[in-house]
Specification:
The complex is a heterodimer of chains A (491) and B (439). Chain A is of the alpha/beta class and 491 residues long. In chain A, 25% of the residues lie in helices and 33% in strands. Chain A contains 13 helices and 24 strands. In chain A, the strands form three sheets. Chain A has a ten-stranded mixed sheet, covered by helices on one side. In chain A, strands 13-15-18-21-19-16 form a six-stranded parallel barrel. In chain A, strand 3 and strand 4 form a beta hairpin. In chain A, helix 4 runs antiparallel to helix 10, helix 11 packs across helix 12 and helix 12 runs antiparallel to helix 13. Chain B is α/β, with parallel strands linked by helices. Chain B has one domain. In chain B, strands 1, 4, 5, 7, 8, 10, 12, 14, 16, 18 and 20 form an eleven-stranded mixed sheet that branches. Chain B has a ten-stranded mixed sheet with strand order 3-2-6-9-11-13-15-17-19-21. In chain B, helix 1 runs antiparallel to helix 2, helix 2 runs antiparallel to helix 6 and helix 7 packs across helix 8. The chains are: A alpha/beta (491), B alpha/beta (439). Chains A and B meet through helix 1, strand 23 and strand 24 of A and strand 20 and strand 21 of B. Strand 23 of chain A pairs antiparallel with strand 20 of chain B.
């Protein structure tokens, strides 16, 4: 093939590609608010300072320091097939809180009105009058939680839903028992860093036999420059309980890359069920790939009890780089793990996401459904592991990962690792990569839909299997988010 | 220094003496350079460990803790089994313990348009063609065992098929290891060049008729398909159950060529196969199938890589395996689609049947796609025989063992039935027999 034709093929933008070039990031504003932050840098003094600010007990301080000392021995992982700029861990400030919050608002009425306004612009009403029916929200702004709604209502049924700081203060026995039990502080580079410097996060405890009456949710917002967000979420579902938990994230548009290294731990005991949904929309950087959040998150659930169930659902639409592998350890007999994911990348985003399903108990089942859509010069990777231990008799897994490519500068990769050590295991893995079906597009346009609406409809259909797993309000939001990302001019 | 590191070093050192001989004895300058470069590459990268992603599930500790030496013996005691396996009609080119055996080879019936000679002989008349092919692969990038073979192989076989030659005759290359060749080391080397618009059938067998001898085979095969060429290529491996077999096959396909290949693996203690295919033109069709039936403590590791560099190509992969007792299988298939390779159709499937109580499978079918107008799928399944099917057969008065065999046979037959040559099929069934006897 001659060079000119080749170049033309490579550089020509298709109609679909133009349609998918995204609009401006809607949540890119910055709230000018007085903050209380500790100087940049990372050493034992900084960790002590965080502990002091949060008035933490000694065991917590010890744990953080142990993690920090271990972190010093670790090397930053280099294995992915792309490069990112070096992160200077000494240049980050590890604690930034809105000034008003550091005095500790006793109720939501005392929260800085500027903050409430910020969350309202994000579509998260903190005042309970205007609340979304049936959703309790914990709002995390930079390093701290600024308010949790519906606490009293939840208390009536015994559900504890509060910020991590409050949990360490009020329920130390629970936190001590479960923190680090799923993701130990030695787990990996970013999880260890998180264990040392985590500033806040949500804590949620569902007592025995309680079906949590509200959807619980946390909203994360990075606002200040030069900081990273290191939150830690811990959800414990006691025997026979049920909880559905949602998280959402946004950040201002900035030229610098900001680090978000969170840890999420889920524990499900006998017959308990945890449903964890994420709509991630961090700022993803501009067209040239400048700025954006590095989203390096460790999420893991442990199905400790018999017939327990953990289900992860995620819509990944933001972040410059995402590394995220929500995993389930299927320890209890007959436990169930599920993973549903939609990852949409545009500009120069890199999404490397997938799951790990570790089958240990007998008759355990796992389901993986992953949908990736890449456009522009982005790179979308599914990387997953299904491991069946010798003890896991009759393990069953079904995996499906589909990718859709729009334009010829993006790429889609699939790296499924399947390790089977038991001969009674049954597993199926299926993956496909293709473009939007031209016939479907033609059909829809011939019925009077414009190109953009047609593409949006097809993509919605492509992701339907995942969206139907989201709680209703979030499903609507996710569809809107996808549409917004895809909105653009038809060239 | 750790114990493994010491072993690795002495393993590498073992080859130095042989390498010196090979380099000094080489008369063709570019081959001499190639040997020298390959040797330094081998010494530089050493033996891969489990930390190497490509060797994550296959340990080489057993190989490196033993000492192997090249054998000069070319006699085969097991002539009856050999005759039985090879049949009366094939064109045969036979190596015994890595040495060419003129008495066992049958080269009198070679059809016109086909050249079968030793590689050394071929370099005299065809050196530029062979050099052109081999120099497409950068020595500096080559893997441990490709480098080791390139440095140490003594002589190999060259099969040249002239343009527009079509033959139904099967060309059979046999590498057989005799019972007397314990601790033998051999480096089989084959180069197959199919000219424009030709069609030919090649079978490459690596066999031994004794199951209890230890030896190490490190094979390298280069296949080149010119425009419109069609090649039916079968690789059959039935080494001794204590042998180590590491094989690298590199295929280079030009426009509109057609490769129809299958690799059948039933023998050896540890078997690693690397199959790399470059699709360097439009309209290429490439089929790479594989079948492994293992039992005991056998370990097989198949790595395939298909590189789609041009538009409108099709590649098809189906690897199936039956694992019994404590056998272990690893599969890693890679499909690369370059940005320019639009309209690519690529399929990959790995199916495993686990029958043993202690068997293990690690599979990783992976896709790396940089073009949008493509259709690529991959899949993997791991499962057991269907209870309902077993029950059905039993209700028809077929014993449980016979029913199991029947179903397992059905599982592999759809692959074997794709082989058109009946004689090759007969041979493969002979090789599969011991594995099926264990069911």
């Amino acid at each position: 093939m001659n060079k000119a034709v080749e170049d033309k093929m490579l550089n020509e933008k298709t109609i679909e590609e133009n349609a998918l070039s995204s609009r401006e990031y809607k949540y890119g504003f910055y709230t000018d608010i007085e903050t209380d932050r500790i100087p940049a840098g990372l050493n034992e003094d900084v960790i002590n300072m965080i502990c002091d600010k949060k008035k933490e007990p000694d065991w917590m301080r010890e744990w953080r320091l142990k993690a920090y000392r271990h972190w010093l021995t670790l090397k930053e992982p280099q294995w992915p097939n792309f490069k990112y700029g070096p992160i200077d861990y000494q240049a980050l400030s590890y604690y930034t809180a809105p000034k008003a919050a550091s005095e500790g608002p006793k109720s939501l009425d005392e929260v800085d009105p500027e903050l409430i306004k910020t969350f309202e612009r994000l579509g998260i009403p903190l005042s309970e009058q205007k609340r979304l029916t049936g959703v309790a929200v914990d709002a995390v702004f930079d390093s701290v939680s600024v308010g949790t709604t519906h606490q009293s209502e939840l208390e009536k049924v015994g559900v504890i839903f509060c910020s991590m700081t409050e949990a360490i203060e009020n329920h130390p026995e629970l936190v001590k028992k479960y923190i680090g039990s799923v993701v130990p502080y030695t787990d990996n580079f970013f999880a260890t860093l998180n264990s040392a410097v985590f500033s806040d996060g949500s804590f949620c405890y569902i007592p025995k036999g309680v079906r949590c009456p509200l959807e619980l949710s946390t909203y994360f917002r990075i606002n200040s420059a030069g900081t990273g967000q290191f939150e830690r979420t811990l959800i414990v579902a006691e025997e026979g309980s049920y909880v559905s938990y949602l998280e959402g994230c946004t950040a201002p548009m900035r030229d610098e890359n900001q680090l978000h290294a969170a840890v999420v731990e889920l524990v499900a005991l006998d017959n308990a069920e945890i449903k964890y949904s994420t709509v991630q929309n961090w700022y993803s950087g501009d067209k040239e790939g400048k700025g954006g959040i590095y989203n390096f998150v460790t999420k893991r659930g442990n199905c400790r009890g018999r017939r327990s169930k953990i289900s992860w659902t995620q819509v990944e639409a933001g972040s410059a780089i995402t590394w995220k592998y929500p995993s389930v350890i299927l320890k209890g007999d007959e436990s169930i793990g599920e993973f549903y994911s939609v990852a949409l990348t545009n500009h120069r985003m890199e999404a490397d996401t997938g799951t790990k399903m570790i089958h240990i108990g007998k008759n355990t089942t796992s389901t993986i459904v992953s949908k990736g859509i890449s456009t522009d010069e982005s790179n979308n990777t599914y990387r997953g592991l299904v491991k069946v231990q010798p003890s896991a008799d009759n393990a069953r897994n079904y995996s499906q990962c589909d990718s859709m490519l729009v334009g010829n500068k993006c790429s889609a990769n699939t790296f499924p690792y399947i390790e089977i050590n038991n001969n009674s295991a049954t597993m199926e893995h299926e993956a496909s990569t293709s473009k939007i079906n031209a016939e479907q597009l033609f059909y829809l346009t011939s019925r009077g839909l414009d190109m953009e609406a047609a593409i949006s409809l097809i993509i919605n259909g492509f992701c339907k299997e995942v969206f139907k797993e989201l709680p209703l309000e979030f499903a609507v939001e996710a569809v809107k988010l996808l549409e917004m990302k895809l909105e653009g001019s038809v060239g | 220094m750790s114990e493994t590191a010491i072993k690795t070093q002495s393993f590498i050192k073992n080859f130095n003496e042989l390498a010196k001989q090979r380099v000094q004895g080489e008369s063709v300058q570019w081959i001499k350079d190639l040997r020298q470069k390959s040797l330094s590459r081998f010494t530089e990268i050493g033996v891969p460990t489990n930390k190497d992603e490509e060797w994550k599930y296959t340990k080489l500790n057993d190989i490196i803790s033993q000492t192997f030496s090249a054998s000069t013996e070319a006699d085969l005691a097991e002539s009856q089994s050999f005759e039985n396996y090879c049949g009366p009609d094939d064109i045969l080119y036979v190596f015994v313990n890595g040495n060419f055996s003129a008495s066992l080879s049958r080269l009198n019936k070679i059809p016109s348009g086909i050249t079968i000679t030793s590689l050394k002989e071929a370099l005299k008349s065809n050196t530029s063609r062979v050099q052109d092919l081999i120099s497409r692969y950068d020595v500096g990038e080559s893997t441990t065992f490709v480098a080791l073979n390139s440095a140490l192989t003594d002589d190999g076989v060259f099969i040249g098929i002239d343009a527009n030659t079509t033959t139904k005759e099967c060309i059979h290359i046999v590498h057989v290891t005799s019972a007397s060749a314990a601790e033998a080391l051999s480096f089989p080397r084959s180069v197959i060049m199919a000219g424009k618009s030709c069609e030919a059938t090649v079978l490459e067998s690596h066999i031994s008729f004794k199951d209890d001898i230890t030896y190490f085979t490190n094979a390298l095969t280069d296949i080149y398909l010119a425009e419109n060429a069609t090649l039916h290529y079968t690789k059959a491996q039935h080494e001794s159950l204590k042998a180590y077999h590491i094989n690298n096959t590199r295929v280079w396909q030009e426009q509109n060529s057609n490769l129809d290949s299958i690799s059948v693996q039933t023998g050896s203690r540890l078997n690693r196969n690397n199959l790399d295919i470059v699709l360097n033109g439009e309209g290429i069709n490439s089929t790479l199938n594989g079948l492994y039936c293992l039992y005991g403590h056998q370990h097989v590791d198949n790595h395939t890589a298909v590189d789609h560099r041009f538009p409108n190509c099709i590649s098809n992969q189906l690897y199936k395996g039956i694992l019994n007792q404590s056998a272990r299988a690893v599969f890693n298939g890679k499909i690369f689609v370059k940005p320019i390779a639009q309209q690519t159709n690529s399929y990959q499937l790995n199916k495993n049947l686990l029958l043993g109580t202690d068997c293990r499978v690690d599979t990783k079918p992976q896709l790396e796609i940089f073009a949008d107008d493509v259709r690529c799928t991959h899949g993997a399944t791991i499962g057991q025989l269907n209870d309902d099917e077993l029950f059905y057969l039993q209700t028809r008065c077929i014993g449980k063992v016979a029913a199991k065999k029947m179903l397992a046979r059905g599982f592999v037959d759809d692959l074997l039935n794709t082989i058109q040559d009946e004689e090759i099929n007969r041979k493969l069934h002979i090789l599969l027999e011991p594995s099926f006897a264990q069911l």
